[in-house]
Design the sequence.
């Protein structure tokens, strides 16, 4: 059983505040991982979601699940280090109860399939032993140094009346 603190999580995930959604890993065993997300009223999404009734958006619960899963992938498959994991699909997502400031999300993710560039995991998020969300996630691994030098201006459509239009 392995545990990871925030410094070790920073070494494995590219996310940083306000998008880092994992505070601690409490268990990694074989093909599963358990992570903790402490939900704080100081998180920026609570300002507008919802005033007077702060609820953690479901998409951020899914993001937390994906980040915990990313830690498992990096531990199981060292070739994935230096790559970024993009969420490719979300299947069978269910949100059972609202998550509010002061709650502690316990996220359990289990590897279903791991190929060289694709991972599929099933997970559950709980608060005080009650299931609040569950989903099956698929992620695609991509090199951090994706080719960004491609000139995209040739694909750009131009309004003929604009100053960007070529002069005949």
Sequence:
């Amino acid at each position: 059983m392995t545990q990871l603190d925030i410094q070790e999580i920073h070494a494995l995930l590219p996310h940083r505040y306000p998008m880092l959604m994992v505070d601690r890993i409490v268990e990694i065993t074989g093909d599963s991982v358990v992570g903790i997300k402490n939900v704080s009223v100081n998180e920026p999404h609570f300002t507008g979601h919802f005033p007077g009734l702060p609820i953690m958006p479901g998409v951020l619960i899914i993001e937390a699940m994906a980040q915990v899963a990313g830690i498992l992938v990096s531990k199981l498959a060292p070739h994935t280090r230096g790559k970024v994991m993009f969420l490719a699909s979300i299947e069978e997502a269910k949100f059972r109860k609202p998550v509010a400031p002061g709650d502690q999300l316990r996220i359990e993710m289990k590897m279903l399939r791991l190929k060289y560039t694709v991972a599929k995991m099933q997970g559950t998020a709980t608060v005080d032993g009650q299931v609040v969300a569950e989903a099956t996630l698929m992620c695609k691994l991509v090199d951090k140094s994706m080719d960004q030098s491609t000139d995209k201006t040739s694909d750009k459509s131009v309004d003929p009346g604009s100053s960007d239009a070529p002069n005949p």
In short: The first helix runs from residue 6 to 12. The CA atoms of residues 97 and 130 lie 8 Å apart.
